[in-house]
Every structure is written in C-alpha cells, then in structure tokens.
Amino acid sequence: MDDLKQRALDYHQFPKPGKLSVESSKPCATQQDLSLAYTPGVAEPVREIEVDPANAYKYTNKGNLVAVITDGTAVLGLGNVGALAGKPVMEGKGVLFKRFADIDVFDIEVNAATPDEFIQTVVNIAPTFGGINLEDIAAPHCFYIESELKKRLDIPVFHDDQHGTAVIVAAALLNALELQGKTLPRAKIVFLGAGAAGCSCAKLLKLMGATDITMVDRKGVVDTSRDDLHDNNRELAIAPGKVSTLAEAMQGADVFIGVSAKNGLAPELVTTMAAKPVIFALANPDPEILPDQVFALRDDVIMATGRSDFPNQVNNALCFPYLFRGALDAQAKQITEQMKVAAAKALSQLAREPVPPQVLEAYQLPSLSFGKNYIIPKPFDPRLMEYVAGAVARAAKAGE
Hints:
Blueprint: H1 2-13, H2 31-37, H3 43-51, H4 56-59, E1 65-70, H5 87-101, E2 104-109, H6 115-125, E3 131-134, H7 141-152, E4 157-159, H8 160-179, E5 188-192, H9 196-207, E6 212-217, E7 220-221, H10 231-234, H11 246-250, E8 255-258, H12 267-270, E9 278-281, H13 291-297, E10 302-305, H14 320-329, H15 337-350, H16 357-362, H17 384-398
Parallel strand pairs: 1-2, 1-3, 3-4, 5-6, 5-8, 8-9, 9-10
Antiparallel strand pairs: 6-7
Helix pairs in contact: 5-14, 6-7, 8-9, 8-15, 14-17, 15-17
C-alpha cells in the first residue's frame, strides 16, 4: 500500500501537476490566424450566436464540453473532504471522458454553504457547457440539487454516483440472472445501502421489471413505518412487519447488492440465500464482503465488486462517457430514463459478444467469454462507443 501511495502521488505530480490541460484545436501561428482566433474575426461568431444561441454548438466547443462539478461532500469513500480535495477525482473523471469518448471537460469545485447556493452557481455557469456531470455530492442534497438543475437547465444533467452506478448494475444483473437461470421480475433483491446509488439502482431495476426489492440501511429495513424517510427512498419502502433486519431480508434472497461499506455483509448471511445467488459487493475500495470469503462458503454464486483486481468489475467508466457522448451527439436537453435503459441493455448485449484481441491484450488474458467471470464488458473495449453511445443517441431521438 505504501508503494501504491507513492506511485499515485508521483503520477499526479509529474511531469507536471494534475491530470488535465487545455489545448488549442485551431492553429495560431501567424498574424492571419490571430486575426481569426481573436479580434477582429472572433466578432463574427459572436454576432451569429447573439442572433441564434443554437449557433454556439456550431462555432464553439459547447457541444463537446461537459462540466464535472462537485461540492466535495461525498468524495469516494472518504466523505466530506471539501471541494478542493475533491479536485483529483474530478480531473480523473475528465481523463476518462476524454480517453473513452473524446469529450472535453472542465472540472469545477464549488465551495457552497447551501444546496441552493451550489445550484445557483451551476445555473450561472451552465451556458458554457453541453452537459453537467454532478459528482460526489452527499445524499439527500444530491437528489434536490439534480432535480432543481434539471428543471432550470436545457442541457443534460447527470449525477453519476446515482445513475451511472444504476446503469452498470442493471446491465450486469441482467446477465448474471440469465446465467443463474433467473429473471428480473421474479428475483428477490436485497440492497444494503439506501443512499444516492442504492435508491437510483433500485428505481432503475423497478423500471426494468423488478418487483421484489428490499432496501436496508444503518437503521434497518426501509419500511413505511419509519419517520426518517425522504422523497427518494420513501417510494422504495416496503410494508412494515415483513422483515426488519438484513439477516431476515437475506433469507432466500436471489440477489444482494451492496452500496454501503466495508464488511457490511456477514459471511454467514451468504449461506441463507437462495440457490444460485448473485452478490454485488460494490463498496470501494473495500467491498461488503470479499470474493474469497463468499466462494469459501458456496460455489454457486456469481459475484461482482467495484474493484479492478477481481472479475466482474462494476465500473461507472462503462457508462458516463458513452451516455454523455450519445446525449451530446443527439443534442439532447436531458438524460431520460429511456436513455439509461438503452445504455444498460446495450452493455448487457455487448458482454455476450466475442471479446476482441485488444481487450485480451489490455488485460493480459488468454481468453474471455460470457460467463460467471465475465458478465459486463471491460472498460477498454473499443466497441463501447458504438454500442452504448449509439443506443443512447437513438433513445434520445426516439423520445423527442
């Protein structure tokens, strides 16, 4: 771990600090270039945009520029570290946007005393961008912030911690259930964690056909008798009296999805699940339960984590670059549920296709095929752009 720490710090510091830079997309080597890039030539696109704001997509980088914005209140598993400390993560998201979908990013870290102050800041700077990616904002404020921004802006607003996670979980779960001989409408699903990611995942699964979902948080099962619920988990609450603890909910469960914290799932509860269960232990960097603990207890499990050193990594990098690529290409004004479903189904389908050689080379694998250890595509699969961004763009156009 000490070696990883130093390598990570060196990576961020050298050869120059940070992970992002701004480069000109036009030549500026001659007097003529300068007269076009700036005065007097720059006045011409200004006049065109004044006449019709849509011309900003024609004459500026707006249509390929996303803001990755945080207030630093829920950064990774580190908590409320502040806006500035969240900057390395926002820069990292920018790297992934550029690497996987050729989307430019400005990372923006906002010191805001209240959610409304944060919202107003984003509204004020929104004309610059073609889309807004909200990141690492604590629940329940993240729900309110996203909802208000979607009402007030005419460009896509997407909270990746919620919806990016939901898309990947849905894609992976569709495939895992099929391999286990089960279906989403008939699966008994238990969530540990009822925050931003958990609620969004559960809602998308319900939209796609899930009918039996039990949410569990630090206080126990989320049921309608509780007086501490908010708008985003209230609709997921079950009737009181059915079950009250995680242990009771896990009895006969087909699926466990953890979006909580290290060691959240006791090994003995794995043994009480139904035959051929699915376990997604997604807490980062340390999952709710480690794969070797699970497989020591039973061999009929399909398991995923959020880590790259285990098979079946549930990674948001499979979603947000391509979701935004499709949205930007379609000049969508918002990211709809239909676009998220389209992304999930496209990812699910891609995992069933033969794996190209460049993916095997990137991961130093002799072979890889759809099965218990490969239920979701790898981030370096070059077909993600075609499959996911294409599906999202088509869904956006169909919804117009």
